[in-house]
């Protein structure tokens, strides 16, 4: 039970990093990024490739973060004239292109078999300390990133982003360079998400193109929407709730005495129900964003 | 309890419900199946096979005098959820054996985790060659892709084809088939004149088909998932390519969504579903219980996995993972399952797995 709890918390922490990255873009800046998982994929693949080259884990993570930031910069620059929904579709396309590259470039990514046997970070410590140390590292990363996101959101940069989200013309009139704001947000979000991806690759010891399926992006969107778009605390609540639904569904089935044929349906139904309930009753999320109102 | 005859025992079991007839406690093992997601049909089919196996074991008195049970968890068709399920089975339910998953890219990380924990892993659906390197506690009940590839290569060669064009999906499975088939076929003296990996989910595959037809092959060899195969088959028909023979690797998957008038006349091969009288009895029991036959060739492997696990536990007189593994190695020298005789090689993978030579005619798949 203890092992399982540590695992669930660690996975939740890794998802929290990715969701915080998405929230920077979608929450503060209102950027409809539907290809967000590409950043996590870059982080995971950079870690996998660095491992095959014999690099240190830190170098792999750094490579992933830099690559994701470069991609973020590019996405920020392209499609400047696109309306936000069309831009969202463009991001989805970019993520799919990256996934296709991951499937086809065997020499680099291991093709569709992926890269396996990536070492976990603290295997030397033995049990249960290796799992706990990993959890500690993930939680530390989440805490640091959450504080950073909060500071970023409450500061001048965050206010500029919110202005760009609500009144882009006004923001431009006030002298903000919208293109630069957009790029910088995407780069910051990409960096956090790639870090999450890198930790994910270490924890699962495996990376494959399946990790970059669009469904993963929408899972992150679900977490952010349930918690509260634009609110750091909300994102953490959303992640905790969705992960709890994932983890508890098998137990709920046993308690309620359902047969194994509804095992899958119960898990999906539970998450769907939470999302629907939140959309109906708390459309701004469980912990909505607090906007400072000028009197 | 001992003086009941087995049929009376079974009758008692049915009437008294699962709790009445056994000594205290239940012996649990686990399974991770894709009950939701793209492969849900296959996952559900395999679950039925597994549950039939559980009924069978319990009707014969369970395991170690206790009731036998398989806890089935959903993998959602993705690696994170699958690992979540495997961790729950190992960490909370403390099962000594876990079966699953379907897709190789999920079976690999799940298997790695189970081997790391010393838990017995039974591969019942995946065929990537990488699975043989998982480690000492992982066992494979179905033939890995090397067997399937050499089978289809020698089958097509024996049909007299010397120049073939091959198309397969661009994923772990398709890449494995293409490389393995080509290697085996060219070793026999044939030649693969065109090889195409197609992208999943397209609305048309005309470009790919035209590319293949330009090389004037003796036959088209293909493998594709139901819906995509339907598009490929229809367009091949429209382009007049069906004058040349078509050979399907995993025929039932390839024609499942294709109208019979288009699919008629195709040849192919398939993972051996069930073999011999035991297999026939299993197929009948399956149809009786679920009011329809199985949809895929995989269910028998789930059923065999359950019965082998129960037999291994009885042989070891223990539900301890290490003892089960030792017993599985002994039983696995020659175990008569519904999918034929199961014997393991040095890597604990099935030797000489069964495959069927098939053809599609009059709207049905038949032995050839």
From TrEMBL, chain A:
GO MF annotation terms: branched-chain amino acid transmembrane transporter activity
Q: Per the record's keyword annotation, is Glycoprotein included, yes or no?
A: no
Q: Does the keyword Cytoplasm apply?
A: no
User: Which regions span the lipid bilayer?
Assistant: 6-24, 31-49, 55-74, 86-103, 129-149, 186-206, 218-242, 262-282
GO cellular component, alphabetical, reads: plasma membrane
Question: InterPro entries from the entry?
Answer: ABC_transp_permease (IPR001851), LivM-like (IPR043428)
Where does the record place it?
A: Cell membrane
- Could you tell me what this protein is called? Putative branched-chain amino acid ABC transporter, permease protein
Q: Which organism is it from?
A: Variovorax paradoxus B4
